[in-house]
Amino acid sequence: MTGNQLTTVIEAVPEPMLHLDSSGVIAASNAAARALLGGWIQGRSYAAVLRQPAVLGRIEAVQADGAPGEARFELADSAGGTQFRVRISALPDDGGGQGTRRPLLLHFTDITHLREAEEMRRDFVANVSHELRTPLTAVLGFIETLRGPAKEDAAARDRFLSIMEDEARRMNRLVSDLLSLSRVEAAERMRPSDLVDLCAVLDGVRAAMRPAAEENGNTLELEHVGLGTGADGRARALILGDRDQLMQVFMNLVENALKYGGPDRPVRIVLSREEGTGSLKGTVIRVDVIDMGDGIDLQHVPRLTERFYRVDTHRSRAMGGTGLGLAIVKHIVNRHRGRLRIASEKGVGSTFTVLFPEA
User: Fold this and answer.
1) For 238, phi and psi rounded to 5 degrees?
2) Rounded (5°) CA angle 306-165-213
3) pTM of the predicted model as reported, rounded to 2 decimal places
C-alpha cells in the first residue's frame, strides 16, 4: 500500500490514527487524531507529540520486534481526563533505511466510559456493603446479647427485638430499592407506549399518602392548572407512560416532601400544562411537588439523584431512607423522555418538578 493509499484509509476511520515512518516521524494522521492532539503534529517526532513513557516504551518495543502491542494514553482536560487504549501495529518496511526500526500504525480507542463504569461498579459495591454492614452488625450484636446477658431480661429482650425488627425492615427496603433500581435501569431505553392520565395517577398517590400526611399533621393538596377536560368534564393530562412506574415516582416525591417538609406544614402537588423549552419541544405536562421545609443547600442539589447520596445521613436513615429513591425517580423520568428539576431555598422549602411530553 502506498503512502497516499494509507492516508486515505486512515482518514476514513472515525477514531484517531497515526502513521509513523521508520524514523519515528508522524507521516500521516487522520482528522480525529489532529482534533485530539493538534494540527501541528504532522511531520513531528512521535516522542515530541505523545510524551508519555508507557506509550513511548511500547512504541520502541514494537519498532524493534514487530509484535503488536498496546498502551494506555491519557489526555488531561477540564472534565477530569480522557483515557485511550493505543493499539500499535508494525507495517512493512517503508524503505526509510533505519536499520531494524519499523514503520507503525497507532489506533486510539476512547475507553474513558469503561473506566467510569468500573469506578461506578466499585463505588456501588462499597456503598451497598456499607449500608448492609451497619444493620447486620447491630442484629448480630443483639442476638449475642439475647443469648447471653439479656437472656432472662424480658424488658431488654422486647427492646432489642424491636430494634432488630427496625433494622431488618431497613435492610428489606434497601434490597427492594436495589431490585427496583435494577429493573428500571434495564428498561430505561424502552420507551413506554401506554396512554396514562396523570390526573388519575396523582389522585391515587394523594389517596395512598393521605393517612401518612394526616398522622403527621400535614395537608396534602392537589391542584390542576390550565388542563383540558375529557368527555366526562373531568381534568385530563395524558402522556405515554408506565402507570406503575409513574405511581412510584410521585409516591417517592410526595413521601420525601412529607418527611423533610416537617410536621404541620402543607405539601402541594400542582399539575399543569405548558410549552416545552430546549430539547423538550411541544406541549409538556408539568408536575410540581412543593414542600415548606427547611430547604436544601445549593451545593447538594446537583448530587441529590446520585445513588446513596444523602444531605444528612443520620436523619435520612432515621426516617427509613435508603438513599436510592431519587436515583430511581431519575431513571424512570429518563425512560419517559422527561426532565427532573430540583429547586430549593434554605428556610423556604423545596420544589421537585417533573416534565413529560404530552401525548
Assistant:
1) -95, 135
2) 60
3) 0.65
Residues 354 and 255 in one domain: yes
Q: pLDDT tens across 90-108, in order?
A: 988 755 545 567 899 999 9
Radius of gyration of the chain from Cα atoms? 29
Per-residue 3-state assignment (H helix, E strand, C coil) for the chain? CCHHHHHHHHHCCCCCEEEECCCCEEEEECHHHHHHHCHHHCCCEHHHHHCCHHHHHHHHHHHHHCCCEEEEEEECCCCCCEEEEEEEEECCCCCCCCCCCCCEEEEEEECHHHHHHHHHHHHHHHHHHHHHHHHHHHHHHHHHHHHCCCCCCHHHHHHHHHHHHHHHHHHHHHHHHHHHHHHHHHCCCCCCCEEEEHHHHHHHHHHHHHHHHHHCCCCEEEEEECCEECCCCCEECEEEECHHHHHHHHHHHHHHHHHHHCCCCCEEEEEEEEECCCCCCCEEEEEEEECCCCCCCCCCHHHCCCCCCCCCHHHHHHCCCCCCHHHHHHHHHHHCCCEEEEEEECCCEEEEEEEEECC
Number of domains in the chain: 3
Neighbouring CB atoms inside 10 A of 209's CB total 20
Estimate to the nearest angstrom the gap between the alpha carbon of 212 and the chain centroid. Answer: 30
Q: Which residue has the cell 517526532?
A: 45
One domain, residues 248 and 226: yes
The CATH number assigned to the domain holding 79 equals 3.30.450.20
pLDDT in tens, 159-189: 889 889 888 888 888 888 888 888 888 888 8
